[in-house]
Amino acid sequence: MATRPTRKALGERYDRRRQEVVDGAAREWARRGVEQTSVQQLAEALGIAAGGIYHYFSGKEQLLIAICDDLVNPLLEEARALVAREAAPEERLRELVRLWVAQVVERQDHMLVFQQQRHVIDRGAQWKDVRASRKAFERLVEQVLEECATRPVDPRLALAALLGMVNHTAQWYRPRGHLTSSRIADGYVDLLLAAE
Amino acid sequence: MATRPTRKALGERYDRRRQEVVDGAAREWARRGVEQTSVQQLAEALGIAAGGIYHYFSGKEQLLIAICDDLVNPLLEEARALVAREAAPEERLRELVRLWVAQVVERQDHMLVFQQQRHVIDRGAQWKDVRASRKAFERLVEQVLEECATRPVDPRLALAALLGMVNHTAQWYRPRGHLTSSRIADGYVDLLLAAE
Amino acid sequence: MATRPTRKALGERYDRRRQEVVDGAAREWARRGVEQTSVQQLAEALGIAAGGIYHYFSGKEQLLIAICDDLVNPLLEEARALVAREAAPEERLRELVRLWVAQVVERQDHMLVFQQQRHVIDRGAQWKDVRASRKAFERLVEQVLEECATRPVDPRLALAALLGMVNHTAQWYRPRGHLTSSRIADGYVDLLLAAE
Amino acid sequence: MATRPTRKALGERYDRRRQEVVDGAAREWARRGVEQTSVQQLAEALGIAAGGIYHYFSGKEQLLIAICDDLVNPLLEEARALVAREAAPEERLRELVRLWVAQVVERQDHMLVFQQQRHVIDRGAQWKDVRASRKAFERLVEQVLEECATRPVDPRLALAALLGMVNHTAQWYRPRGHLTSSRIADGYVDLLLAAE
DNA sequence: TATGAATGAGCCTTCATTCAT
DNA sequence: CATGAATGAAGGCTCATTCAT
């Protein structure tokens, strides 16, 4: 017989709905801009009433934070797991950049929102965790990069260049091209590493 | 006694004041965000009354456009002049990137505003000119790059990487470091060009 | 085995629960204010879900009316019974004020809500009954007062003063003091009646 | 010749306009209730745009505070001046109550708003000054009352009764009756003082 | 009965812009 | 040219109420 939704199932439904809001908001905001999209418009695009969003988030900024959390935290986690594994330095860098570009490509909307709102993220106290995760990830990249034999440029410049390249990918990447996520990543790494 | 300012002098003063507004707005908006800074706040930071801004610009968006014009047009002009000169391809690329990075560094605030507002620039009809200038500049870079012997990566990827690196420079560059504008530019070019 | 509750028992339980909602609402609203307390907050304080309140009351205002009914109707009824009894005028006044102060003290929260919402009660059509009961009670006090030998002040002023004193009691009364309900009442009456 | 408005005159105009808003808000809120009157409605009644109110007050609650300040501070000041003068205790009480009732009657709307919002005033930190002034005034009355030969009731009860009477005056007083402010005050005092 | 997700009307407030001075 | 009071159109958010479960 049909089972009534249990408390757990209700929680799952809540989580699913919440995730839909996060993803939908990222999609709309990436296209139209955060400040250019009213909560009304967002709700309309999500097919719910404006007030409904406030069941899941206490305000527009909290929703923005959720989007950034969803972007930064999984990336940092996976990167840490990857770095913990044994590997040759160059291979490790290659894997890290692949992982990273894959995330940028898979969560392109989140990424575009993240970059769009950089000046907001850099300021408020409520953004501290996001800032810390971003910083931690950049440190990780820095360390991996330091162990590699790169072309003869200032190491800090190499890091900055890599950050610039990868993050900028969100601005131009279109799926269905022959430039897949891993080809892009390999290209970036090839620019950095010393020719063999 | 004091001579009355002539018509020309008035015009100069007007232009000087207008430029001060543009630069001040870029500075404030780069730090606090365009939408996060009200016209009142901006005026206060500029030391004038809110209404005063409307003597120079018909609205907030016109001021934003002026900032972007101030960034994109001189860059495109200088780049065109540079490309018109005779030079070896690799040297030409190097000079172009130097010019470009120099602009990014000198007009860092303008650049940060420009990037912050990318989704706005990409949409409205009033942004057509800015979009055209940006596109023209990117084409120029593409052409210069195509003539160079770069490392063996997809040419479109090399262009995208270069755009990413250089634009991202605005996010981290601080004056007074040993990484000067031209060293940064040279580093970027070194990453792209085939090792000799 | 456990007997199913009878229809009557269900009704009793319904009434008991309803009364708990009335009293709980009076308590919360007296402290936090009616408009400052959302139905959600109220429900939480009562240990039920927001929707649950609507099983007993068709809306927030109906609940407010119930609180006022609970205050005004018993008072008027008891006052009428008291006045119907034989007694010397001064003694009758004393008993009436005792009864009245006792109500104010026992239903202090109801009273505070009642006073807080005076401007609401004075307006809407749905408040006609409450207004009528209040008016009837005040007439009763007026009549009882008229028969007494009061100090030589305008009778209307004496009535107003008495109303002011007694109603204000809700604002400061705290149980466990030596000022009991009947001592307070006697004090008020002593102020009004001519010295013997 | 016509003088241009000086900076001082502009300030005066600002103050006058601000006072109009305070008085108008008191009038509307006394009649319709603070929470029952939207800022829009209030502005309409004042003949200005809704946003205009925010030139003088940073929010609805600040306007409410201004109303209460306008009520409590002058009263406290005048009462202090009065108490500082030489006088027989009973005469001093009479003058104090006259002053007090006169204020209640002259600022009837302010008073009604003040009472209506008692539970709000009693809570927030932004109400500390108003609470302090109210308390200081009540202390003053208490001291003056203590020196008088009152009827044989508990002194605290006498004070509470007086507070109840006087404050309640705002609820029923209508101008043009034969019960003038000073007759009302004298009546109240006569109730309290021992018969001669 | 009870729940709590969802609704949608309306509120307070902000802010780009105007205009009399 | 400059000011700053005033406007009015949204915007974010709250909350009483409904209803499927």
Radius of gyration of chain A: 19 Å
Distance between the termini of chain A: 66 Å
Write the CATH architecture name of chain A: Orthogonal Bundle
- Measured as a percent range, the helix fraction of chain A is over 70%
Q: Could you give the count of β-strands of chain A?
A: 0
Quaternary structure of the protein: homotetramer
- What characterizes the major β-sheet of chain A? none
Series of H and E elements of chain A: HHHHHHHHH
| Overall 3D shape of chain A | elongated
Strand % of chain A is under 5%
Q: What structural class do you assign from the helix and strand content of chain A?
A: mainly alpha
Unreliable residue stretches of chain A: 1-8
> What's the tally of helices of chain A?
9
CATH homologous superfamily annotation of chain A: Tetracycline Repressor, domain 2
Largest interface: A-B, 40 and 39 residues
- The CATH class of chain A: Mainly Alpha
Mean pLDDT score of chain A, rounded?
A: 93
Characterization of this structure:
Four copies of one chain form a homotetramer. The first copy, chain A, is mainly alpha-helical and 196 residues long. The first copy, chain A, has one domain: Tetracycline Repressor, domain 2 (Orthogonal Bundle). Helices cover 71% and strands 0% of the residues of chain A. Chain A is built from nine helices and no strands. Chain A is elongated and about 55 Å long. The N and C termini of chain A lie far apart (66 Å). The N terminus of chain A is likely disordered. Chains in contact: A-B, C-D. At the A-B interface, α1, α5, α6, α8 and α9 of A face α1, α5, α6, α8 and α9 of B. Chain A binds a DNA duplex (21 and 21 nucleotides) through α1.
